[in-house]
Amino acid sequence: MSQSTASAASVDPGEEWEAWRAERHRSLTSPTGNLALVETRWLPAGEEPDVEAARAEQPDRVTVTTLRRTDLVTGAPEHGLRLWDADSPAIRHFEGVSAFPYDPAWVLEAAYTPVPGARRVAFEHLRDNGGTRELVVPGDITLTVDGRAYTLSAFDDDGTLLLVFGDPTNGDTTYGAGRFLFVRRTEDDNRVILDFNRAFVPPCGFSDQYNCPMPPRQNRFHLAVEVGEKLPLFRDGFPAQH
Q1: What local confidence, expressed as pLDDT, does residue 9 receive?
Q2: Model confidence at 207, in pLDDT bands (50, 70, 90)?
Q3: Is 81 within 8 Å of 41 (Cβ atoms)?
Q4: Which stretches of sequence are listed as region Disordered (predicted)?
Q5: How does pLDDT run across 16-68, given as a tens digit for each residue?
């Protein structure tokens, strides 16, 4: 056995998961982490964002960034500003994210079939009052879970496949609008890994200033996925986003 092979074999998946959990906490509480987002300000049609002017109105701990989206009615681009407070109330009251215990049985291999062209699939978003936004889904993920076959749609998130999924735990032990999972590619272009231990609460679970995609029907599992993150925890009665 080569040294690199021995090193890879010695890595404990549970310890890797604990390290992932620690990194999640650092990311969530960072100056531009999910908990820091305190305002998403959409501008009137045709108006361009002025970051410097917006920043001048804020204390030094606030970071200002831009974003854009497409108007659901007109199809025109909309521009906006986001304000991130490194000392937001959510960060000050945050305790952590509860999670199920690690379970290696939920690390699943799946078939991946790329689809030529930029296929778009409609995803309903949490704050669009039932409206949908089309996201690029570059291929189909197929697998069997508990005897049932699924064809899942994961969209392209800056070059990474992001799966938005639901299951019967939503609204009970896990976040009500579903959870997210980054899909891991393998050396085989037609195989991917779904490690549901790393399923995570979407950004809208930490700030009501996000507008997250919700699981389409094909991404809803019939059985409880009792691994991964459950819910954000806050001190002193601070209201969580449910």
Answers
A1: 56
A2: very high
A3: yes
A4: 1-25
A5: 999 999 999 999 999 999 999 999 999 998 899 999 999 999 999 999 999 99
Alpha-carbon distance 175 to 204, whole Å? Answer: 10
Q: Could you give the CA distance from residue 29 to residue 233 in angstroms, rounded to a whole number?
A: 13
Q: Phi first, then psi: what are they for 60, rounded to 5°? A: -60, -25
Q: Please choose, from the candidates 200, 166, 239, 155, the residue with its C-alpha nearest in 3D space to the C-alpha of residue 24.
A: 200
Residue-level length of the chain? 242
Burial code (b: 16+ CB inside 10 Å, e: under 16) for 6-45 equals eeeeeeeeeeebeeebeebeeebbeeebbbbbbbbeeeee
Q: Which residue has the tokens 């697998």?
A: 143
- Alpha helix stretches (DSSP H) within the chain: 3-10, 13-28, 51-56, 89-93
| Contact between residue 216 and residue 151 where contact means Cβ atoms under 8 Å apart | no
Q: Which two tokens stand for residue 190?
A: 């037609």
- β strands within 130-228, DSSP E: 132-136, 139-145, 148-157, 160-165, 179-185, 191-195
pLDDT at 2 over 50: no
- What pLDDT is recorded for position 4? 45
